């Protein structure tokens, strides 16, 4: 039975643009803080421990990104399911989703942590880790694997809160974790007073402690603030229907993120053929791409939650306004960033690197791909709406088409023409265009609403959140 909402933020009525901005802004700030800290962390490691330590940390990055993809993919499913139940006013369903999500979390944590610890050295060898850094890389990776438990739980707590419309509190815990990490990093790396010098392991230990503190406080906050609410885990449940929904929504999101990482790795192979300066320029450009995408990703997450809540409430008519307002909110932000990248590429690149050859090749990238950033205005919003309807398989397929049928084949072909490395950059822009076109075509086809609207037309009490596969 449906019951009155008495907690969280209801996005099923009121101003859609205000809801989008209120939801997206804390996410954007949190992402910027996390990115800023990752840069500071590398600076500490480089200055205090040297090149070998930086290399040892870098070699674990693909594994760390896979852990992030798994955590964010599974918890995206939780956020969408909680949002839809919240929109329907179904507290019982929210509790079921939360309980099942914690069960999935515990299984994932045990399996990933145990396998990671057992096969850490094997993974490093597969990544062709140089022998001279194998020792410190092994210790760092094993500690990173231990941090997965806190990482997953932090994502899960944040996803549940975002599902009920709260992005401010997750931001507060990101701020706390960032500050604690920044303070502990140098102390544990070089030692201070009774604290021994732990070297590179100190950096990993600082992350574990900072995330652990944030998780404990986050869990206590939820327990106290919502002690009468349904977002506290009350017992472990393994209900087939909900577990299947988590898998159906979460697994494609995980695969999609892994595809992005794989695509970056393959494109790097083509870029490597144009020399070290080109590789360095592409590495810097990748960081710029990530920063530029942050505002659009924040709006995407807001669009996803608003979509899920309104579908839960049976208000599918509001979804067209989510697309329109999401695009309008993105336009001034992304267009301004795009203009800066195209107009002042040298100044932007020199923030990251001083080498003239690297900057020169990076300028070519930004002057071409900078225009491609304009596609972020649209496809992140439409993808967010599609994800909010639970159709993450569709957005995964869109990413697969963009990567495997456009970006990689075109980069391979165009890089061997007179365009040279500019052919790679052109392939990236064209892949953005194809992603946008495919996402909009699927959105306007209305197929992403199939199976969802049918359920809400019936307003079934027992299974208001059931979804159909794509």
UniProtKB/TrEMBL annotation:
Transmembrane segments: 20-45, 57-82, 102-120, 140-161, 173-192, 198-222, 262-285, 291-311, 323-345, 365-386, 393-412, 424-444
Keyword Translocase: no
Main location: membrane
Keyword terms, alphabetized: Cell membrane, Membrane, Transmembrane, Transmembrane helix, Transport
Bilayer topology: Multi-pass membrane protein
The organism's place on the tree of life at top rank: Bacteria
InterPro entries, sorted: MATE_fam, MdtK-like, Membrane_Transporter-Flippase
Keyword Cell membrane: yes
Subcellular location: Cell membrane
Name of the protein in its database record: MATE family efflux transporter
